[in-house]
């Protein structure tokens, strides 16, 4: 696929966009907007721990004060049909001896983290006849592998959705030029400190 033309390079920040993003123009524009916003934040903000306070019971409601589950199964199903389980799935399990996503590390009786998550949601769906979906928020490190991994759950009663978080290129600090020279660069050319892109999450949730 031909690379889309980049933005004007008069602004140092805009030098980042042109050489690295590939694909349809609407997709490129969204990726570029995220990168520009990321770079325009300025210096890193430091947390003033003296201003951090323990959340109140109104903010974080104690479990033992929650309302009991309705005895009416139909009402419970109605509530569960509004539920989506979101799991961050962007980390690699290299420190655990795994070359892929942490979610495929075996933790009990040959089952992986992801297996256990699937079993829990399957049990819930079967018990109440509901349709609780699973949303896996991947990083560019884990996205391709995850797409292959979830194929094993094709016969599950769960709707599994995946999407890739926004990604930002590593930059040369002196001139803001991107370390990647093209869109299909190796993963080493992208920054590891990923952040969620709220508009993208919202769009995915609306499709579920």
From TrEMBL:
It comes from the Eukaryota. Gene3D superfamilies: Spore Coat Polysaccharide Biosynthesis Protein SpsA, Chain A. Keywords: Nucleotidyltransferase, Transferase. The keyword Ubl conjugation does not apply. SUPFAM superfamilies: Nucleotide-diphospho-sugar transferases. It catalyses: alpha-D-glucose 1-phosphate + UTP + H(+) = UDP-alpha-D-glucose + diphosphate. InterPro entries: Nucleotide-diphossugar_trans (IPR029044), UDPGP_fam (IPR002618), UDPGP_trans (IPR016267). GO terms for biological process: UDP-alpha-D-glucose metabolic process. The keyword Ribosomal protein does not apply. PANTHER family: PTHR43511. Belongs to the UDPGP type 1 family. This is UTP--glucose-1-phosphate uridylyltransferase.
